[in-house]
Amino acid sequence: MTITESDATRTDRLDPVTFEVLKNAFATSVDLMSEQILRTCYSFVIYSRDFSSALCDAEGNTVMQGSGDIAVHVGTLHFQCKAVIEQFGDDIHPGDVFAINDPYRGGTHFNDVSFIRPIFADGRIIAFSQNKGHWADIGGVVPGSFYVNAVDHFGEGLRITPVRIWSKGVFLHDVAQLLVSNTRAPEQAMGDLHAQSEATAVCEREVLRLVHRYGTDTVTAAMTETQDYVERTVLRRLEGLPKGTWETADYIDLDPGKGEGLVPIRIKLTLDGSGIHYDLNGSAEAVETFLNSGYGTTFSAIYAGTKTFFPEVPLNSGFYAAVTADIGPEGTVVNAGWPHAVTGFCSGPYEKIMNAIFEIWSQIMPERAMACAFNLEYLLVGGRDARDDGKPYFMWYDWMAGGWGGRATKDGSGATAPVFGPGLAVQPLEGQERLSPVLTSVHQIAVDSGGPGRFRGGCGIEKGGMLTDAEATVMSYCCDRARSITWGIEGGLPSIPHGVWLNRGTPEERFLGSNFSSVPIEPGDSFVRPSAGGGGFGDPLERDPDAVLEDVIDGYVSVERAEADYGVVVIVRDRELDDIVLDEDATASARDHIRAARRGWLDESPEAIAERYRSGELGMLDVIRRHGVILDWGSGELFPNSTAQYRELLERRSARHWH
Question: Are residues 43 and 178 in the same domain?
């Protein structure tokens, strides 16, 4: 298929000016929903921008998403709109509003609740407006509803199949009360329910304003044409790219039901001139934890990962039409199906798929290449707030910024929202402390967290807290990459492992890992965890020594890791004055030594490396970056299967590119 410049900008039924005006007006109508929800939501989580909105056409196809939506909701909103249409058919009326959170019908996870409103003109449905927001709790075993040990959805919370909340403008209070009463914060949930519904009404008013001005037929034609325009634009962009097939894999840390060993997610991409085609067959079976993905979120990861390399193209179902995917049979980690647990998809397959896609497109578009980004993580502390006489439930629900991968021409972005949702805001510490009995003790750049490379990965964050006045409190953590550590490409090195430390530096110190639920904690207990940085791009020994020196001065890289990872020797003459200088002769010698020795480091006995770690002779970053060995970072126990897999990946992505 050959597409000309005029094809990519043509409109069949509209003059170009009207088309452009309406296309941008659709985007504005969605962004107005976002502004409404920010001003009226009750949940601190939603206020921190864990929500998205969309305008869909009469068939449920996405016409436009907002400019500030989070990536994880991309590619799922139209599935949920179509589920409502399928469920209710002709029984949809003006003034109706529907709710759905069902991940087995194209949703994300149970916490993400969507409200969908039909928009009528001339006696017929012409569109649907939708807002999806993350409720802080949706029931289930633990506060916050992130139960890592869940093996089916019954331990995760309330499943909302398409249900009517407003009927012809009449609020069905009994139905709404049934939903919110299954949460630990019913008043908050009811407030968000009304806020989200009202946001969809804002979009409805805006679309009807356009209908009044341009007419129903013109507006609906523009909805169709906006999708066609995006599809044509993507196909035209593909004409200048090479054709072929590329493959890679990324990994989840483990399947508790099968013992130690990384869990593969396999991605194949084909460009054949007719579109972008993905194949995820060969991915592992569903895991016995909540780190599975339903079909909606897998498609979302595919669309979001691909869209990263086409940033200028608007996002709607036209983009989805240009991208096809075979995600394999139901029952896999990327297509789990009912009743597999899926709440942790965001830390499991989702970002693994995105980063694998980044790796493939980095080969197709090397000028936009980027190494692996840090993994999304959620830390939840929940119990009864003893600061209040009524001791209400509280959910301290926290996520962190981290580092994105080093790029083809520059360092990765540091202290940045996850690729899961670049629009996510870092939650204000003062707001968290007011709402929950958790005191933040540290929140700072994590030194040495950026993966070493010719272009360094962005830095992650270290955040710590302490429980104060609380009762019956438990901690849960949804993350990954304590073993499948954030990786570099083109010779770059990995970042650091994720994981939570409880009471670090005390006799009660415990490493809890990167996925756990229902760990009891008491007032006075402290906890700390880092977010990883991004992986490095290119051989670290090719990084400009002056750039390493600046990293040391800025506190991004320690003096010790500057020499160990980059072979750059610096002398600190006065730290307070930043009087730190480069030792050029020692640097040349150190780099020669690393070049001669580093391949041999990857061949050393994993058992011997583990023993040297346990004795304190080797630090964690030497174990990971020099020797490619994966351990329990608390006890030092060797994971032989994970180590073998990790060394293979390190050889392919890093060592084979070293000169």
Answer: yes
